[in-house]
Amino acid sequence: MEPVLLRARGKADSRALATYLAAGGYEGLKKALAMTPEAVTQEVIASELRGRGGAGFPTGRKWTFVPKDHPGPRYLICNADESEPGTFKDRELIEHDPHMLLEGIAIASFAIKANTAYIYIRGEFVRWAQILETAIAEARERGLIGKNAMGSGYDVDIWVHRGAGAYICGEETALIESLEGKRGFPRLKPPFPAVVGVFGKPTVVNNVETLACVPHIITRGAAWFASIGRPRNTGPKMYCVSGHVARPGVYELPLGVTFREIIEKHCGGMRKGSTLKAFFPGGSSAPIMTAAEIDVRADFDACAEAGTMLGSGGVIVLDQSVDIVEAAANLAHFYAHESCGQCTPCREGSDWAMDILDRIAAGHGRAGDPDALLRICRFASQGMTICPLGDAFALPISSMVKKFRDEFDRRIAAASPLPQKKLPVLPWAGPRSGFGE
Amino acid sequence: MPTQPVVAASPAELKNLTFDAALEARIADVITHYPTKRAALLPVLWLCQERYGWIAPGVMEAVAVRLDESPAFVEGVVTFYTMYYTRPPARFVLQVCETLSCAVCGGRELVHHLEQRLGIRPGEKTADGEFQLVGVQCLGACGSAPVIQINDDYYESLTTATLDALLDELKGGA
């Protein structure tokens, strides 16, 4: 497939506005500004573009949820928080082609009649936030965005807002809270952000990759976009492959390729001396897949059918040297660290699962541990928490216990009891302790 | 540009703090990006951390006064996020990614190596205040694991040898 989103990768001076304009940049925005916002939305609906951040919700439909009769203001937020383990596509896009993202943001803002857009970028991405600031300044100076964008009478301001290190802020309502200057505590839904979002106003939150697809849909048409991939799973997708493959990195491929093709053809197979043991198909929050499931198609519907999810497209490949118990403990540390602490099943569950997994990994597992893990995971998922972080830790850990139960059992069979802790206990003072006398 | 060291102001300097004109101008500008003053809290804290090296209690109070918030609210926000330093950091903060992709591709070895070389455990500073070792969660650069973020910069696809060279360079360049 000819590269669409990554077409600038490897080109000289790819970030510059002149380079982007020479490649036909901002034509989509020009075309969109001559259309009605409804027609732009309709085009995106027809393209069947689905959100690339993880949930795979149809983007055009999300835009239609903004109330028509709202007096405004409305807001568009570009989610560049990218903190799902195994995902590193947004950074690649921003690094090579920041203007593609800005054009997508401007078109999406126009479609939902927003005059202000924020790019919420994770705090660690200092350099990439600077790249965006530079690009915004360039585009504003040229009159492509800002007041009276491209002479159309439409105003759109884009601001970069840096987070400060919290995985939870990738969840859209937590992101909104964080943008408002608060702790990143997810909100209950409904009301959905499209109705009550940032600053209490209608807000659409879209992922970087989703927004970067929009200019191409407008310039080349929905039919062209829908011709890539499979029905209901259309368009190019950036797959991020990490772990024990020969050539890890970001690969742009049509939705619906198999994981075998991604790993064996594009990543050059496994590293020398490695054999595939398992992989996460869409970031660490997706249920793990075994080597036998490599022929599953990497798209939203096929992954859901296989009992997992495409998520953000972050494929983490693990070879035979990886101990699944240790991998589970590693992820449990991540989720216990990143749980915001609002909901008991997630806050306590992730911590408890981490303790159990650490204990098994240290060689002190007990016979009931795998079932206890499954019970904790069941209680943290399926709508027991405000946001999906409960599911995000429960799904991978429960799937690892279920699919690699023998590894857990082997560890536990060879385990020794936990050495007794000496707790400081006060000597029994008798019934007459002296209190209250 | 080589990685710039953090220059942390002393706690005494940050008591009864008032912002100087240059910082005040940047704060006033950032507030215009948002419809509420509160929304400028994270960016203003970033500006302060850039200026003073860390977010001391005095900085929280000054920020609270500037944005019409209570110091307690500001402290609640500062401590929720992991990237605001509430204690003076070392000149170079070595943030080693510990999450799965990095862990299985050599991240663990990097941590062991740094512990040996610097004689400190994660969370600690070297005695000369030069380096601080911190284990962090996924940095979003899994394709070039293992990754270390030093202050504002990413260093990717590291080995113990390239890491050693890097530390020598940072220390020498100071």
CATH class assignment of the largest domain in chain B: Alpha Beta
Structural class of the secondary elements of chain B? alpha+beta
CATH architecture designation of the largest domain in chain B = 3-Layer(aba) Sandwich
Can you write the helix and strand succession of chain A as a string?
HHHHEHHEHEHEHHEEEEHEEHEHHHHH
Mean pLDDT of chain A: 94
List the strand order in the largest sheet of chain B.
Answer: 2-1-3-4
Total strand segments of chain B? 4
What's the arrangement of strands in the largest beta sheet of chain A?
8-7-11-9-10
Order of helices and strands of chain B: HHHHEHEEEH
What fold name stands as the CATH topology of the largest domain in chain B? Glutaredoxin
Q: What is the H level of CATH, i.e. the homologous superfamily of the largest domain in chain B?
A: Glutaredoxin
User: Which CATH first-tier class of the largest domain in chain A would you pick?
Assistant: Alpha Beta
CATH architecture assignment name of the largest domain in chain A: 3-Layer(aba) Sandwich
Number of domains of chain B: 2
Identify the CATH homologous superfamily of the largest domain in chain A: NADH-ubiquinone oxidoreductase 51kDa subunit
Shape of chain A: globular
Report low-confidence residues of chain B grouped into runs of 5 or more. Answer: none
Q: Could you walk me through the main structural features you see in this protein, from its secondary elements to its overall organization?
A:
The complex is a heterodimer of chains A (437) and B (174). Chain A folds into 3 domains: 17-227, 3-Layer(aba) Sandwich (Rossmann fold); 230-319, Ubiquitin-like (UB roll) (Roll), CATH 3.10.20.600; 324-413, NADH-ubiquinone oxidoreductase 51kDa subunit, iron-sulphur binding domain (de novo design (two linked rop proteins)). The model of chain A has no long low-confidence stretch (mean pLDDT 94). Chain A is an alpha/beta fold and 437 residues long. In chain A, helix 3 packs across helix 6 (98-111). A 5-stranded mixed sheet of chain A has the order 8-7-11-9-10, with helices on both faces. In chain A, strands 3-2-1-4 form a 4-stranded parallel sheet, sandwiched between helices. The longest helix of chain A has 18 residues, at 344-361. Chain A has helices spanning 17-22, 27-34, 37-47, 59-64, 89-96, 98-111, 126-141, 172-179, 208-220, 222-226, 259-266, 300-305, 324-338, 344-361, 369-380, 389-403, 405-413, and strands spanning 75-80, 116-121, 157-162, 203-207, 229-230, 233-234, 236-243, 249-254, 276-280, 289-290, 314-319. Chain B is of the alpha+beta class. Chain B has 6 helices and 4 strands. Chain B is elongated, with a radius of gyration of 18 Å. Chain B starts with 20 loop residues before the first helix and ends with a helix. The chains are: A alpha/beta (437), B alpha+beta (174). At the A-B interface, strand 3, strand 7, strand 11 and helix 13 of A face helix 2, helix 4 and helix 5 of B.
